[in-house]
Amino acid sequence: MDDIFNIDPSLIGYAQLCDVPMISKGGTYMEEAMFGRMVPGTGELPLREWIAALPADLEIGLEVPMIDELQAGLSPRDHAARVITAARELGA
Q1: Residue 74 in 3-state DSSP?
Q2: N or C: which end of the chain has fewer CB within 10 A?
Q3: How many alpha carbons lie under 13 Å from residue 70 in its C-beta half-sphere?
Q4: Distance (Å, rounded) from C-alpha 31 to C-alpha 10?
Q5: How confident is the model at residue 60, as a pLDDT?
Q6: DSSP assignment, residue 7?
């Protein structure tokens, strides 16, 4: 965590936000990255602390592909609304 606080803020141009369990629940890293990220705040990463360490005006993108939920019928609009609401609650 201290690494983020020690980086010159001018070197950070963009950040992406998602969440994951600390230990993968199966599959490969690539499969998880492409299809199974979690809504911010529902995994085990210290996202609130990371966001607080970033420059206040930094652009933060949300990277939360959740193919299982979309295939189960969750609409893209509802998925986006859920992810955006969760990110805002974390301070992003």
Answers
A1: coil
A2: N
A3: 12
A4: 32
A5: 94
A6: S
Residue whose C-alpha is closest to residue 37's, from 46, 48, 52, 24? 24
- As a whole number of angstroms, the distance between CA 36 and CA 67 comes to 7
Q: How does the average pLDDT of the chain come out, rounded? A: 89
CB count in 10 Å sphere of residue 47: 20
More confident residue, 9 or 82: 82
Range of the domain at 64: 2-90
| 3-class state of residue 38 by DSSP | strand
Distance between CA atoms of 38 and 21, rounded to whole angstroms? Answer: 8
CA dihedral 46→52→55→58, nearest 10 degrees, is 60
pLDDT of 70 above 80 = yes
Q: Which amino acid is at 80?
A: A
- Tell me the two tokens of residue 41: 């705040």
Mean per-residue pLDDT, 39-60: 92
